[in-house]
Structures are given as C-alpha cells and as structure tokens.
Amino acid sequence: MTSQLMSAPKCLLPSEGESYNLLDSTFTIKISGQETEGQWIMYEIVAPTGHEPPLHSHPWDETFYVLDGEMEVQVNQVKTLAKAGCMMFVPKNVPHTFKVCSPTAKMLVILAPASADAFYREYGEKIKDFPTLEDLKYFGDKYGIRAYF
C-alpha cells in the first residue's frame, strides 16, 4: 500500500458519504475501495423492520457492527440476537442472513475485498422488488452468490 493513501484521518458525520438505495435499505459509503487499494469497503447501512435477505453466501468476507437497533443474525445454523455494540464476522462462502427486529437498524458493514461493491450497486439498480429465479441465476453466475431456499 502506498504511503499517500489514508495519510490523514478521515472523519465523516453520520449523514456524510455517497449514498444509494438497495431495495428498502440505504447504503452510505464511509471508506471507499479506492481509499484502501481495493482491499475493503465500509458502508453505513440503515434497514427497516422486517428486512431479511434470504440465507445466502458470497465469495467475500463481511463484518457487521450494529450501531442502533436489533437484528436476528444467522450464520450457518446458529442464530444470535445482535444489539447495538455487537459485531459479527462472516467469512466468505459461509451461509448467513439477518432479520431486522427493531423499527430500524443501523450498522457498519465492511466487505473484503472492496470489489463486492459492484454486486450491491448493480443489484440496487436492477432489482426493485423480490428477485426472480432468473435474477438469482444472473447474480449468482456473475458474482458467485448462492441463495439457499
């Protein structure tokens, strides 16, 4: 990594950073992949009650840190209630999901490598409702995502 990257601290207020929507959630980029030479990216995600992706896996590591609210998190077959202050690490290719149990949940999410951002952006642009089987096949083939039904 070159010494000029992140040579000064980066301080962002909660509402600062590039934002985009993915279905019913808002993703705000706090640290971009460009700033980490593609090693990782950090989002602040706000999701409403009931938000629950299907049980799935993908070829990138994912770390959640709950800032506000409550989520039921499942990694493999183990379920945990995660409240503000909890952190969960999900290694690549491990089945996982979560369900927002409070009115909203706010979390920091780190993905490694940062190239995973391409999936979230494309998914947010193309999918406006529940994905079809064709959608799942397309994203699975392109990004290595597997959904478990």
TrEMBL record:
Domain Cupin type-2: 44-108
CDD domains in the record: cupin_QDO_N_C
InterPro entries per UniProt: Cupin_2, QDO-like, RmlC-like_jellyroll, RmlC_Cupin_sf
PANTHER family, per database record: PUTATIVE (AFU_ORTHOLOGUE AFUA_8G07350)-RELATED
Protein name listed in UniProt: Cupin domain-containing protein
